[in-house]
Design brief:
The chain contains three helices and 25 strands. The longest helix has 14 residues, at 110-123. By secondary structure, the protein is mainly beta. The strands form four sheets. Strands 2, 4, 5, 7, 10, 11, 12, 14 and 15 form a nine-stranded antiparallel beta sheet that branches.
């Protein structure tokens, strides 16, 4: 079996909808998740394994945004804020909460301060930022299964548009360090050659950091959305989605530091939102795991609710004249393969899902029918976790990714258009 020339694999689970679809959406922000949930469950996409996750900042400066369709630049993602992430929900003034653990003037980051003060010269301004405060800094190591890492993000601020070209220039940066990278900014001891900032206004040289002064209604306006007085998302202005991208070496360990802070003062919120599932690698081999079952509970299939289609895919643009294989382990599952769920057979029995998937030469998609058995036992949602080993990743180094869904009884009643 050839373990080198193999493209992305997509695993997609789709099923018929048992009931009407939800058409009413509202922006919501959830806080209080674990660092692993923020990074592994929300941020990461294809071909990335993250570990050694650390955080500096207040507990409610991180958040999970959902319901952004039609009201924000992205539909869902991980929020890093200089204040309380939940403020984006436009809460009642009486319901505003204080920032739990915000560092205020006790935060310091010379690299962020340097980046904030690089903006005036690059745009012909004369202001300067005296300090960076209320920092929100999320860091982790990661291994990529391809030769590039990328993710999509949006910046927003309540300082729009009153404080453009002033000392109150909030700042964020994405500091990347690792093999092959030499940069001017600090990096952890295990990555001694410094780091680079991979966030910036597209097609600028030198790289122009994104702040209220470098992207607004008068400067780079094509990237700006004026939201003053907005009631769907409470931030005075924000950007269109940008993409941060940088070349890496497949299978090597890198470090990224995602950081945002207030400029000079400790008031008025600025945010950066990293799109859900967008932190990924264009892997030589990767597995794209997604699910859309159309019901009220995400990643859930229901007993006696028709059949789903489980699809493994490698793209047609890759070389397909070879045979490839992925291996699947269900060891951490609660639901039993072949009993609670599986491939439906004509006699009404279930055949277990396979423990490996083979792509014959010139075959790009392998599909399986999937259903959940009606057993009459009220057990609540039961986890199915698929640990998928792609042996071709990184030219034979292997890559393990995870896909999970739940098996549950019949879906509960749910609202349509708010009723």
């Amino acid at each position: 079996m050839n373990r080198i020339q193999f493209g992305a694999i997509a695993l997609i689970l789709s099923t018929a909808i048992c009931g009407p679809s939800i058409t009413h959406a509202q922006l919501e922000v959830e806080t209080g998740l674990t660092l692993e949930e923020y990074v592994n469950d929300i941020l990461l996409g294809n071909g990335i394994q993250a570990f050694n996750i650390t955080y500096q900042g207040g507990d409610n400066q991180l958040g999970y945004l959902t319901g952004g369709d039609d009201v924000f630049s992205i539909s869902s993602g991980l929020i890093l804020s200089c204040d309380v992430a939940e403020n984006l929900e436009c809460p009642d003034p009486d319901e505003l909460v204080a920032c739990d653990g915000c560092l205020g003037n006790g935060f310091s980051d010379p690299d962020l301060l340097d980046i904030a003060n690089s903006v005036p010269d690059l745009i012909g301004g004369s202001f300067s930022v005296g300090s960076v405060n209320d920092g929100c800094v999320l860091e982790f190591d990661f291994i990529a299964a391809g030769d590039t890492v990328s993710f999509d993000y949006v910046f927003g601020s309540d300082e729009y548009e009153l404080y453009i070209n002033t000392q109150y220039n909030d700042v964020f940066a994405f500091f990347l360090s690792g093999p092959g990278i030499t940069g001017p900014y600090d990096s952890p001891a295990g990555f001694p050659d410094g780091s680079v900032n991979i966030a910036g206004v597209p097609n600028t040289d030198p790289n122009l950091p994104i702040t209220i002064s470098s992207v607004n209604s008068g400067t780079n306006p094509e990237y700006y959305v004026d939201n003053q007085g907005g009631t769907d998302v409470c931030i005075n202005g924000y950007t269109v989605p940008f993409t941060a991208s940088y070349p890496v070496e497949c299978g090597e360990t890198y470090h990224i530091k995602l950081a945002i802070a207030d400029g000079t003062d400790t008031v008025l919120e600025s945010i950066v939102v990293l799109e859900e599932g967008s932190f990924e690698s264009n892997a030589v081999v990767q597995i794209d795991l997604s699910i859309d079952v159309g019901g009220p509970e995400a990643n859930t299939i229901y007993e006696d609710c028709g059949t789903a289609t489980l699809s493994f895919e490698r793209p047609v643009e890759t070389i397909l004249d070879i045979q490839e294989m992925v291996y699947i382990n269900y060891g951490n599952s609660v639901a039993t393969n072949g009993v609670d769920y599986g491939q439906p057979q004509p006699d009404g029995t279930l055949l277990p899902l396979p423990d490996s998937v083979v792509f014959a030469p010139y075959v790009s998609i392998v599909e399986f029918e999937l259903t959940a058995a009606l057993d009459g036992v009220i057990e609540g949602p039961e986890l199915v976790e698929m640990e998928i080993e792609n042996v071709a990743a990184c030219n034979g180094g292997g890559l393990t990714t995870y896909f999970s869904f739940y098996v549950a009884e019949e879906p509960p009643p749910f609202e349509v258009n708010g009723y």
